[in-house]
Amino acid sequence: MVNRKINYKMHKYSIGIDFGTLSGRAVIVNTTTGEEEAVALHEYTHGVMDEKLPDGTPLGVDWALQHPQDYLDVFRITIPEVITKAGVTPGQIAGVGIDFTACTMLPVKADGTPLCFLEKYMGRPNAWVKLWKHHAAQEEANRLNSIAEERGEKFLKRYGGKISSEWMIPKIWQTVNEDPEIYDAAERFIEAADWVVWQLTGEETRNTCTAGYKAIWHKHDGYPHDMFFRALHPKMEKLADEKLSRILLPMGTRAGTISEAGARMTGLNKGTAVAVANVDAHVSVPAVGIISPGKMLAIIGTSTCHMILGDTEKEVPGMCGVVEDGIIEGFFGYEAGQSCVGDHFQWFVDNCTTAEYKAEADSMGIDLHTLLTEKAARLLPGESGLLALDWWNGNRSVLVDVDLTGMIVGMTLTTRPEEIYRTLIEATAFGTRMIIETFEENGVPVKEFYAAGGIAEKNPFVMQIYADVINREIKISGSPQAPALGSAMFGAVAAGKEAGGFDTIMEAAAIMAKVKESTYKPVGKNVLVYDRLFAEYRILHDYFGHGSNDVMKRLKLIKKEVRN
Amino acid sequence: MVNRKINYKMHKYSIGIDFGTLSGRAVIVNTTTGEEEAVALHEYTHGVMDEKLPDGTPLGVDWALQHPQDYLDVFRITIPEVITKAGVTPGQIAGVGIDFTACTMLPVKADGTPLCFLEKYMGRPNAWVKLWKHHAAQEEANRLNSIAEERGEKFLKRYGGKISSEWMIPKIWQTVNEDPEIYDAAERFIEAADWVVWQLTGEETRNTCTAGYKAIWHKHDGYPHDMFFRALHPKMEKLADEKLSRILLPMGTRAGTISEAGARMTGLNKGTAVAVANVDAHVSVPAVGIISPGKMLAIIGTSTCHMILGDTEKEVPGMCGVVEDGIIEGFFGYEAGQSCVGDHFQWFVDNCTTAEYKAEADSMGIDLHTLLTEKAARLLPGESGLLALDWWNGNRSVLVDVDLTGMIVGMTLTTRPEEIYRTLIEATAFGTRMIIETFEENGVPVKEFYAAGGIAEKNPFVMQIYADVINREIKISGSPQAPALGSAMFGAVAAGKEAGGFDTIMEAAAIMAKVKESTYKPVGKNVLVYDRLFAEYRILHDYFGHGSNDVMKRLKLIKKEVRN
Q: Which of B545-551's residues contact partners 24+ apart within 8 Å by CB, and which partners?
């Protein structure tokens, strides 16, 4: 991105704000040229609170909270900053869009005031924002799943058979169980994504994306029946009507416009269009130009999220969810995931590289990942004789089983660290191929493959392996902040063509979406070897993953028992 | 052992000499008290020649040769040294016994002169001693095995279905193939064990132990039929009669007495009894007091060798061999093995421990094995959730398959190096248990368990795991040089009771054999957990080892193909 000093006085701009796990980032984009003119970043003052509340109240194991003020500070600081950096006026801003981690949710009063802002609730953990990776509602998730199964709830199929502890309903149920007074005081439970939009517009709206993927909402069936909620807890019977909302706005629509208060906070003009809230991964889909079925986007970082559009609602085993209008209005948005990718490689570096390699990396002034990559890049596919199952953090898609664990086979006394490192990378690529093939086998074709995220952008070695393993050309996001760009695109659509934006996300994509010119193309002879290795991966995947030998679960059980 | 200055003038002594891979070691033992009075060590001047001959002739891949003069130097140096150290006279030495690595073999003239001592053959690799770990006859071993299978040779069953490339016949066949002139010039092919005895006594003798375990000899069937040897190579048809010998002496008999030349070389009196040669592992059996069936001895070092006596000849799947009179006269000596034990743990330390652990070990002034052991010892059995197949170097017993490779399952993002380290140790213990159970299931009971070798003597952590896994008390060799002690015992038997020795190895064992007072006893609650883990090990052992999924072999095949 070039920080041009030229002031396109006649041009219009759009601002996208991406709320991540540790910081928020704004980008300002020229809606005529598609150019990203400036970015600004604000790190959350309170970061992730996983040990104690601001007042010192200690938190339990697996808690992960955030402070809503940090989100408002992102608006307050980054919006004026990008406007100034870009050298434009607030009047040139046609629209604003935001995306957020999800499910990141909080209890608020009917006027939007977070309960944690009220002195009487400040010391109560359940009054705060539960971040996506808050895992303390696992017990509730487990019970929810068995109740749903017993009742034969058909929604389970849309989520690969399991509702995650990270999602909305288990997080609310935890509040009921642990602190019913907070549950009663909460007039609304809302995604942080929707809450920050509310702070800009002054009106509560909710989006179909988070509702569909994280709160068990369906375009035609709505939320689960009141009787299901009642089966969880009598207090929750009327949850959908009383504390959620049955009105959901699809992606690409306008949530409202900047309010008086919103204008004071951001420096934007009152009346500027604000898009319906979105999710960081999902908003990246149009940012790389995907606006039609058959094109998968993988956001590859510590974990991987896969998204693809379809024309119809299919039941694909092990997907994380399918939501009509959940990504692009008019299509079914499918999501799948791998729970351990960059984390996997980091585990290896942290636990399995020698002092010799550390010294070698230090002497070359590079980090261990770079050293291992250099060594691993000299190996041919199949040369190590190794094969792994990438389940160090369980398997999300397509097995949906957190109790699966890692496996590696083929070691000899001459096996070297870089061979294992490469094998772990290949294992995650095989995991992606398994997801692709599962989609295809179930009527959702995957013709093209796009990638975004830290690993996709920075690691050509990994991406070439992915191209060879999946035997598809890989196109890489052209923007280093794909989610913020996608949000800016939806901001421009919320503004509409007349106001200098676009009438549809397709039109916005034509100008604003971008991928890098250079792509990763599969190399024929590598593809042939990886086809053979993938056949082996699939056999082991099915053996360990589909119940032929539940050794992984039994080992976990033994581990649990001996520790007690 | 105490180097007593008291000269028991009335006592008799016996000397045992153990020829290892890099050195020879003599021990002198009082046959009245059983005390080991002194030891002496001589490192081979030429060590293992695996790159070139003494004249610079380069060697191929997988060659491993030795120099016969080094063996004679062991006699010349260590025998006088132990006599002097013990403060006794040559007249007090009742007998001498030796043991050797096997199959370590050489071509000699009819008078015992090694071909490599003759100037015309000095530059010819096949003229030298092929050490046990010379692996350059693999091609011959493979062809031998297929020819034997085609011909339906029943001897295969006695060796777990496969003749190893380390053994006598493949090593001889390599000579025929590569240097037929050396084959023709060789009037005898002989185990170095028997050759060194010949150098002491002046008479060629051969022992049933090496012939039985390494040269496909059987007490009743003899060597394979001439037609089998002819099928290998026409030149080899009369091998058994012309270049080996059909006269074999059982363990515990006398090979002869010290000759004039032997006396000059060693300082021993002419006429001193010399025992029939033995093998290092096998000779250790009576050294720990095992002289009857039901007691297994495991020599646990870089690899493990298991020996047990039986009353009858049973076919036990995957054993390395069963030889009548092969260990103790009157019994069937069974041998089994694990090809990767200490090597396994060393691989882990060399390849998979972090710079942090190295720094921690350095700061404590301990090595990485010690550090990992300290950390691993804090874990409970089963606590890691990990399980491995100990096949990093293939599987000798009970699967007899060099193409099997390592496997580990159960890793999560919190798995630590010491957990993997402990798992690899447990895997070798499960491998031992698999061998024990296979013996028992096939009619060879294993009631007691003894251990010798570096790991058995020095690593209580490993040995406690073994005791818990096999659920048997483990007795440890009382001598740090069990093989040399065993040889001294056979030397005393060669002398006989009248000359101050013993008439049988049983009598010798009653005085001279020793085990440590403290033993490793299974801990009940650990046994229960390991029973469950072993059940899992067995399932994976059978799945990967018995053809349900030959992924390990296919990965090796791919590895081989892509490297070419």
A: B545/B389, B545/B391, B545/B395, B545/B399, B545/B401, B545/B404, B546/B399, B549/A539, B549/A540, B549/A543, B551/A387, B551/A409, B551/A536, B551/A539, B551/A540
A43-64 b/e (C-beta count within 10 Å ≥ 16 → b): ebebebbbeebeeeeebeeebb
Residues of B in contact with A544 (CB under 8 A): 409
Q: Percentage of chain A with pLDDT > 70?
A: 98
Residue whose pair of structure tokens reads 């303390």 in the numeric block: A136
In this predicted structure, the answer to whether residue B9 has a pLDDT above a threshold of 80 is no
Cβ neighbourhood burial of A503 (10 Å; 0-12, 13-18, 19+): middle
Q: Do B382 and A561 touch (CB under 8 A)?
A: yes
Show residues of chain A in contact with B421, CB under 8 Å: none
A498-525: pLDDT as tens digits:
999 999 999 999 999 999 999 999 999 9
B2 pLDDT band, cuts 50/70/90, is very low
B10 burial level (CB within 10 Å; 0-12, 13-18, 19+): exposed
- Cα(B428)–Cα(B459) distance, rounded to whole angstroms? 14
Write out the two tokens for B480: 């740090």
Separation of alpha carbons B40 and B34, rounded Å: 18
Q: Is A202 exposed, middle or buried (0-12, 13-18, 19+ CB in 10 A)?
A: middle
- The length of chain A in residues reads 564
Over chain A, what is the mean pLDDT? 95
CB contact under 8 A, B355 and A351: no
CA A504 to chain centre: 23
Q: Tokens in use for A453?
A: 């995220």
Q: Phi and psi of B78, rounded to 5°?
A: -80, -30
pLDDT at site A3: 47
Candidates B61, B133, B354, B553: best to mutate against A (most CBs of A within 10 A) is B354
* Nearest residue on chain A to B559, alpha-carbon basis: A383
Neighboring chain A residues of B380 at a CB cutoff of 8 Å: 562-563
Q: Which of residues A397 and A7 earns the better pLDDT score?
A: A397
Three-class secondary structure assignment of B386-439: CEEECCECEECCCCCECCCCEEEEEECCCCCHHHHHHHHHHHHHHHHHHHHHHH
Q: Which residues pair with B43 in a beta bridge?
A: B23
**A to B CB pairs, distance under 8 Å:** 170
Element containing residue A435 per DSSP (H, E): helix A417-441
Backbone angles phi, psi at A356, to 5 degrees: -60, -45
Angstrom distances, CA of residue B536 to CA of A399, A520, B317, B433, B542: 22, 42, 21, 13, 10
DSSP output for A255-315: EEE--HHHHHHH-PPTT-EEEPPEEHHHHHHHHTT--STTEEEEEESSSEEEEEEESS---
Give the contacts of B258 (CB within 8 A, at least 6 positions apart): B96, B200, B201, B266, B268, B269, B270, B271, B272, B274
Taking only the tens place, the pLDDT of each residue in A297-354 is 999 998 999 999 999 999 898 888 899 999 999 999 999 999 889 999 999 999 999 9
Who among B352, B413, B536 is closest to A554 (CB)? Answer: B536
Which of B302, B351, B552 is most worth mutating to test chain A (most A CB atoms within 10 A of its CB)? B351
**pLDDT confidence tier of residue B107, bands split at 50, 70 and 90:** very high
What is the pLDDT confidence band of residue A2, given thresholds at 50, 70 and 90? very low
Backbone torsion region of residue A184, taken as left when φ is above 0, otherwise alpha when ψ lies between -120 and 50, otherwise beta: alpha
Residue of A nearest to B563 (CA): A383
Average pLDDT over residues A421-437: 98
pTM: 0.91
What is the C-alpha separation between B356 and B362, in angstroms, rounded? Answer: 10
The interface predicted TM-score of the complex, written ipTM, equals 0.90
